[in-house]
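Internal tracking record. Fields below are filled automatically when a chain is submitted to the structure queue. Please do not edit lines marked as system-generated. If the sequence contains nonstandard residues, flag them in the REMARKS field before resubmitting.
Queue: standard
Priority: normal
Entity type: single polypeptide chain
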Amino acid sequence: SVPLGAKLGMAATHGQWLASLYFLLPLYTTGHSPLAGRADVPRAKAQPTRNRFPTLCASGAINLARTVDTNQRSLPKLAETRPRSVAKRLFLNVRDRTYAVKRSMGAAAGVASVAAQIARPKAVLASEPLVADGPVFKVLGKTSGELFPIQNLALMSWALMIFAPNWKATPVLALFPPIVFGMLYSAAMLHNLKYPIPGGVEIMKLEGIIKAFSYPDVTFAAWMHFAAFDCLIGLGIVRDARKVGVPHWMCIPCLLLCMLVGPVGFLAYLPLRIICAGLSEK
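SYSTEM-GENERATED OUTPUT FOLLOWS
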């Protein structure tokens, strides 16, 4: 019998390179020779395969996959997942790299989570609202945070001014929310004056205003101030437009702007008033 190496050498000597590759490539990739299944090729002994690299790679990939994702279905045995083609080997290689990346990302996420837990107490302390010396502002047993939703009462005024400007009760009913806001603002300001902010506040500097607004009771009072005056400016626009002769449909965008960004709506109404007033005089 002629050994396999001698056959490959004879093929290479005669220039039959494709035949040599035909014998070498399967032997290197899978460890099996294409001559192993042929009955006409005599074999004295079964030679053990020296190249165990593909087997080790497949075994390592299986172990890594089982370690990374325990919830996935158990992979088949090594004998069942032996690569049969170059495309399948490429797929398994990509899959193994994907599992490795997932494992690295999971480790990084775990480290980030631990770091966030460590840094959380400081962040919570830094974000907690400040409290002035003395008791917290309350009305009927409710704090400023619990009273804050009362700002939605302003929607009643804006609905009357936009959809029913000519109704006789609109000027009276539209004043009700600003009156409520004014009362809450006055009570909150009296409380803030009675229990001032530690260290005082310089209202002529931006830093002082920022410091004052870091206290919930001061912020609540300021918001009641804004909500009340926005409603009063809108009511003034409606009543002035009726006197000057500005069509109401032209005032609706100004009222919407006034409700959202108060001074912008007032500035948008001024050109309309000037133009309509000039036309009415002519």
